[in-house]
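Weekly structure sync, notes
Attendees: PL, DS, HV (note-taker this week)

Item 1: Flavin-nucleotide-binding protein
DS walked through the input record. Source organism listed as Hyaloscypha variabilis. Sequence as pasted into the shared doc:
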Amino acid sequence: MLGFMASFTDPQASLTEPLDLYLHGYISSRLMRLSGTSPSDEGEGLPLTIAATHLDGLVLALTPNHHSYNYRSAIIHGFATPVTDADEKIWAMEKITNNVVDDRWANTRIPPTKTEMTSTQIIKVRVVDASVKVRAGGPSDDRADMKNDELRANTWVGVVPTWVTFGAPVPSPDNKLSKVPAYLADFVKRENKVGEQNAREAITSSK
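Item 1 (cont.): predicted structure, written out as tokens:
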């Protein structure tokens, strides 16, 4: 599901400040329909738990029992309500679009049509609490295995860094532009570089 963290009332708020989670979906999907209900007595909205995980590497140890992953994960608990204010909804749709590819909103046919607006639902999750978990570094083997010279001489240990790689943009048969726009080419180049950098830095970080 597409989404982003931000504050409509304070767009300049940083990640260290209270933010809402905005999620995008089709108006008739189950989650979007349920967000209009409020099962709690206080009418706070639909209780939700959202989880996300990003994989940074495959950690290969001397024994299968110590194999692991380098990752970053987060779990958010909150209450979801539909976004009904037109300005906030357009703002959220623009943010979500640009969160997929930088500057994509301005390089498409906008604003959305009335049909597009009514068929798209944005829900805002007021975050109540959240937790994060990160695993970084290399393998962590038992002391006895580390003293086993024969085992170490025959077993490769280390980390296979993992990141999403964006390939060269492939034009649609209906595309009329002669070359890939700079904003898109720059996005692909930058994201590939950042993805690799983060995965490799996770190997040398503390566990």
